[in-house]
Amino acid sequence: MNNQTKKFFIYTRKSTDDKDRQVRSISDQLAELKELAVKEQIEVIDIFVEKQTAKIPGRPVFNEMLLRMEAGEANGILAWHPDRLARNSVDGGKIIYFVDTEVIKDLKFSTFWFDPTPQGKFMLSIAFSQSKYYVDNLSENIKRGHRQKLKDGIWPQNAPVGYLNDSDKKVIIPDPERSPYIKRAFEAYGSGKYTLRQVRDTVNELGLRSRKEQELSVSNIHNMLKNPIFCGLLRYGGEIHEGKHEPIITKKLFDSVQEVMMRKSKPKGKGLHPYLYRGFFHCVCGCFITTERQKGNNYLRCTKRKNPCDQRYVREDIITSQIQNEIKKVSLPDDWAKWMIAENDKDRQSEVQSSTLFVQNTKDEIFSIENKIEKLMTLYLDNSLSLEEYRDMKNKLVHQKQLFKEKLSSFEQKANNRFELTEKFLKLNITNVKLANDRTDEENLHLFKKVGSNFEIKDRTLLFKPRGAWKTLLDSEFGGGNALVSRLRRDPISASKNDFDFWRRGRDSNPREAFAPTGFRDQRTRPTMRPLQI
Prior knowledge:
Blueprint: E1 7-13, H1 26-39, E2 43-50, H2 60-70, E3 76-79, H3 82-85, H4 89-100, E4 106-109, H5 118-151, E5 163-166, E6 171-174, H6 179-190, H7 196-206, H8 218-226, E7 233-236, E8 239-242, H9 251-265, E9 282-283, E10 289-294, E11 297-302, E12 314-315, H10 316-329, H11 334-381, H12 387-428, H13 433-438, H14 441-451, E13 452-458, E14 461-466, H15 468-476, H16 483-490
Helix pairs in contact: 4-5, 6-7, 6-9, 10-14, 11-12
């Protein structure tokens, strides 16, 4: 390579892994590489410094360097050793591939010779394989060392809160500052008089902090009380080992804490009545509504946990009656629902027929583009097109093909979904007013959950927000409970067109025919069949 064309990047890396701290420091690497650049008369374009292990792909600085090399900013890399560049098969393969494609025209190392020949690339691949083997072997050695330490009763990782690492004896010892708080937490919870939250608040007030001097959370306290290391046992990988460190608490205290935790985590006894609306309603003040039994009746009342609340209690059967009334308002008569399902099926068939032409035309366009791409390839192989012309024309065709494919997929999905959602809604409404009373309270509650959201109780009255198609039906007042609907249900055929103004269907944005044939005397007054969102 001509000296004038030697444009190199310097790449230095130092892993942050504990077992990899014996490699040369960044400053040492830079000093040697700069000296080598002067000696070889190399122009250094930029210097990349990375502090991350190379045993897994995805190093941001390394990837940025390769992207800039692809852009032609440099054509060589200076590094201390091949293991600085890669210790995994993916990154090592990238380097060799870039050498094959001449994106990288030269590699220079302080402690390794490389030449861009078959023999040189073979030796480089061996160096990368050795680097990967070193990392894999190191990981296995660390695991083996951990297993041996556990057999010897030594904790193999950083000491938990309450202990300190003794670097001389290679064991953990009780932290004189934090260990008394740990013992206090076990004693408090083991008494059964305190919750995890209360224990957390107590030890935080006493001054117990994490390694980063942060207050402990409830989950931190829970994990701490479940950890047997404080009573002299080591739990690692799901296995318990006997430890040689000094315990902070006794095994008896640890066992009593586990019993208390197990007792508190058990489900409530069978004697507790399974209230129907437990956790379902909120009060207008924002608190949950709870249920309690008094004099043979269930009453719903605000828990008043956040703020004082003046809302009064209400009997459960009154709320149940209100739920039944709300369900009636969104109930359709059986014959109407079935008729609308049949009409929806007719519209689905009509849509299928009208959309067949669109689908076929789109598929024809995609097939035509594929043929054009094949012809472009033939022209390029015949040297009728340059590589740049071929790529430009092919890219445009590929973009067009993708647009057509997305258009086709979106059209098919929307066409199916709108009819399926409408049918789902109508089938759910195959009911009448009487069924709202015939259902069990549990069945009515299950249906009511689908009708709306934000269920609240205010002044002994049920409040909620209807959603989707249920809101449309409720706003139209076409559900049960008013004289107009009763008359329409008795004789829908003779109804006037004004009776159906709120459900009248007009033209949509993509009309196929003005109005499909219906059983109504005036075609414009059939109930709407627009897609309903559930």
